[in-house]
Amino acid sequence: QAHCHQPPASRVGPPRGQWPGGSGLPPSPRGKPSLERLSLMPRLDAEDAREAQRSRSRVQLPAGAIQARQAPRFLRSSAPGRLPDIVRGSVLGPRADHQPVEQPQSPPVPPPPPPPHPESPVKTRPRHHHLENTPTDSTRSDITPRQIRVCRFCLDGDDSDGSFDSSDQSGDGDDFVHPCPCRGSAKFVHLDCLVQHFTAQGDWHNFRCPTCKQPYEGRALRELAEISRARMVQDHGTNAPQVAHSLCYLAQAHAQLGNTNDSKEILERGLAISEAHFGRGHVATAATLAELASAHGKMGDVQKQKELLERSLEIKEQHFGVGHINTAVTLNNLATAHSELGNVRQEKVLLERSLEIKEKHYGKGHVQTTAALVNLAGVYSELGDVPKGLELLEWSLEIEERHFGAGHVETAITLNNLALACGEGGDMQRMRELLLRSLTIKEKHFGPEHQELCLTLANLGMACAALGEVPNAKTFCERALRACSDPEARCSRRHGVVLLRAASVQLALNEDQAAEGLVSRSVSTLRQALGRSASSRVLALESTRMGRIWAAVGRNDVVRHLHDLRINREEILNNAENLDDAGIEVSRRVHVVSI
Q1: 110, pLDDT greater than 70
Q2: Which residues pair with 93 in a beta bridge?
Q3: CB of 153 closer than 8 Å to CB of 32
Q4: Alpha-carbon gap, residue 47 to 111, rounded angstroms
Q5: Of 149, 159, 269, 351, which has fewest CB within 10 angstroms of its CB?
Q6: Could you read off the pLDDT of 36-67 as tens digits, one per residue?
Q7: DSSP-derived secondary structure for 17-62
Q8: pTM summary value
């Protein structure tokens, strides 16, 4: 064990029992005897063991807390770790695995460890992606009311109700974080204790939990990455490639916390540093290109997202070779971009390549395969094979809950997409139940008004309208539209899809005039975000999926009316664009003649 050392021949410090407070142990930073320090010694004689037992009995932990009776978790051996976990990006549809930070190949930069996460899985369709203030028994949380949270390092605890999430921005005032998938007594840690541990290690690009070997996330990753960046600037200068490496982690933390603009700006700074040092097209720039592509995708610039991902994939295949595991994440995310543009066949090809590479490398049933599984499920649903899509989603949710635990934010998109698949199959009650679970997780992680909630809210509006719960249907649709009012979301596929789903709810409630306005806005938004041909494909695919849900509850009138409104609006826009094109051509001819 790396941190263990042999005890000195003679005792160092005051005689046993003369430390402040009368304990036989040195005080911990938080003023309590340090139980864990006993375990730093590889051997204890019988007298030491008895003294340790007596000191344990004097420590008063909060009611319900369990005293640690084994070596510190950060010193125990553990099973070999896997590569970075998947972190979802856009709730809209296909998930993009979070791209690992690539290791620079140039001698000046020491090989950095793999980054916190592979490229963020982005889900784009209804595979893509509460009752407000309504509790639900179907929603599971990792923390029950009045559960004791104990720091895995200092063993100090509290008796809060655990309402803070480790990654939730609103939890910035909370001392505790849950920075990785560790559960049980190792689940929580004080943020300042984690910072002390990270600083003491001095491994400034190692953002992995020493116990579970998984990357840190959210608030914890943001804090550590800021420290790493500052240290790299101090040691190497502002424009050193080591600084770019730290910036990539920092950008991932902001993306996980829903700060897309901040993430994009940080990635652009990191990419500029890397390209200045290594040159454009170097393998050290590939991971940053992929992360930057995800940020553009979340902000609605799908064409830019696709362009950056194609650059990243080309660099990786030239460096690692076609079919290498380092290309699998980028294939998944490039499939996401094609999904956003309505290219379902090309998306399917790319996802199958990604899944094949991952299953060959990790094995079937590994958590790293779930992004491709969820996205493939959406493809099968769009192509009409709903049972196959449902099967893949159930399997993906089982893998994720086994790995992360039920209620983890990583499961939210899969719950959302599984709910839509259930709705297409006619099981509206289960659709509503799964969507409530997804919404509760997202609210806890992002906050109640974040744009990442908008698709789940719109889907809940459809489920409640289909079940005849009119007040809830209206409430959810209103919340979805408010969430999409954020400037970042106004010209994106996500916004257009939310508007279309809200329009279907208005039609189901016989609010035809409101529905017509929403359809008009939806078609215009998608046209602006994706262009004429891609927006038409997306509208057709979304209408088909929503049509299955409404048809399953006997509301074919909603399907027909929605189709008519959509076609009429598209024709109006097409005619207007044709007239504009004709006017431009005439003006060009006049200009040529005048010359």
Answers
A1: no
A2: 124
A3: no
A4: 46
A5: 159
A6: 332 333 333 444 444 444 444 443 434 333 33
A7: T-SGGG-SSPBPTTSSB-SGGGGGSS---HHHHHHHHHHHHH--PP
A8: 0.59
